[in-house]
Amino acid sequence: MTAETIIAGDIRINARWLIPIEPEAAVLEHQAVIIQGSRIAAVVPMAEADCQYRTRETVDLPNHVVMPGLINVHGHAAMSLFRGLADDLPLMTWLNDHIWPAEGAFVSEQFIADGTQLAMAEMLRTGTTTFSDMYFFPEIAAQIARDTGMRAQISFPLLDFPTVWGSGPDDYLSKGEALITAWEGDDFIIPAIGPHAPYTVSDDPLKRAVSLSGRTGAPIQIHLHETAFEVQEAIEKHGQRPVARMADLGVLTPNTQCVHMTQIDDSDLDALQASGAHVVHCPESNLKLASGLCPAQQLLDAGVNVAVGTDGAASNNDLDMFGELRTAAMMAKVVADDASAVSAHRALRMATLNGARAIGRAHDLGSLTSGKLADIIAVDLSDPFLQPVYDPASHLVYSNHGRAVSHSWIHGVPQLQEGRLTRIDVADLMLRVQGWQERIQRHKAQ
Ligand SMILES: CSC[C@H]1O[C@@H](n2cnc3c(O)ncnc32)[C@H](O)[C@@H]1O
Ligand SMILES: [Zn+2]
């Protein structure tokens, strides 16, 4: 090999194990990932990299698994400030009697800035590189994510009634369209439309959301079939199951993400299949609110793309996607009555490539493939709780929790180095969080 054939790169990551997600279920050993700018230039055996590449930086990860960053496809980031505020309640009591009053009292631009940063600190620390948010003041959440260099789908809320962010559907939709225009074409921020749920948004605003999505290409994300109560109430009010109503209104398309889907009959499955809409499975929130069980393996078998989300930290109560994967894999086995349902490799794919497909970014994200964006994480398996190692994929899903994540890069930029966040001042953030805790606690005690 002559000097002319040496290729320059920015960062070389030397990985003991590499799970690229594509090809499916591959576990490679002693691989080098070469990053050039914001993209993956190559994934090659280390010996080959020695001959072919010179980079300005090398990161040796001799006890680590390297894989694509996780994609958390559903959450309400700033609700991290409400973590542990109201537990052990079913969805509608939790929302009506606790969360919506608290949001009315506390949510402001500053709340969103601090709460979103708290959520990002937790997500980055536990391996998420892209998150999806559906919450108030989305323009603030988008800016905070962009300033930190985290990739995010930011959905603006759409409801029939006024909230801290809008006076009603007209206001939500005009502010939302401005959000879409402001972030169109951005590398990091994907603006999206977030009709809250079939029981809070009536037909006319839903049709306008569909038209806005068609005109702009913005994805739609909606809570759908979260509980049996939601389905029953909809049959009484509309004479239809919510999925059928959404299909009739044109809401279900390949650019739509249906969050929860714990109640699925044959007609729902047909509608999901026919539409190409995605399902976002949030098993821990569904368990904690006793909402129901999403049949993830049945959906996958039917060809429906199933991604994973944590939901907000007030109903989970963490944003650790590795924990979520463990729960998803365990739950799937019981729901399918089949221990082979949602294997470790399948779970990892759901949290990466399936997530990328759901947000319309599979061409750029979700696997370690040359040409894709360099959104990469490393998990350190050297701790006793992850030893010995026969199968790293098994450990990532069944033994790990997100705190073993040691490194991450987003767009080729380091975000986590040996467990330390590089772009968030955690000490300063903790002071602001403490301030919110005191204010919310005082209000609770009144
Ligand atoms: C339209 S902004 C988001 C809105 O949704 C509320 N919320 C949080 N978690 C859930 C859930 O699991 N189901 C339904 N609604 C949820 C959040 O508190 C905001 O008000
Ligand atoms: Zn939610």
Layout of helices and strands:
Blueprint: E1 7-18, E2 28-36, E3 39-45, H1 46-52, E4 53-68, E5 70-72, H2 91-106, H3 109-125, E6 128-134, H4 138-148, E7 151-158, H5 169-183, E8 189-195, H6 203-216, E9 220-224, H7 228-238, H8 242-249, E10 256-260, H9 266-275, E11 278-281, H10 283-288, H11 296-301, E12 306-308, H12 321-336, H13 344-350, H14 353-358, E13 376-380, H15 392-399, E14 405-410, E15 413-417, E16 420-421, H16 426-445
Parallel strand pairs: 1-4, 5-6, 6-7, 7-8, 9-10, 10-11, 11-12
Antiparallel strand pairs: 1-2, 2-3, 4-13, 13-14, 14-15, 15-16
Helix pairs in contact: 3-4, 3-16, 5-6, 12-15, 13-15
The chain binds the ligand CSC[C@H]1O[C@@H](n2cnc3c(O)ncnc32)[C@H](O)[C@@H]1O and zinc ion.
The site of zinc ion has 6 residues, from loops.
Largest sheet: 8 strands, mixed
* Ligand species: the ligand CSC[C@H]1O[C@@H](n2cnc3c(O)ncnc32)[C@H](O)[C@@H]1O, zinc ion
How many β-strand stretches? Answer: 16
> What CATH architecture label of the largest domain applies?
Alpha-Beta Barrel
Radius of gyration: 21 Å
Per CATH, what is the topology of the largest domain? TIM Barrel
* Amount of helix: 25-40%
- How does the overall form come out from the CA principal axes? globular
For the record, what is the CATH homologous superfamily label of the largest domain?
Answer: Metal-dependent hydrolases
Kindly report the average pLDDT value.
97
**Share of residues in strands:** 15-25%
Task: Strand order, main sheet: write it out.
Answer: 3-2-1-4-13-14-15-16
Unreliable stretches: none
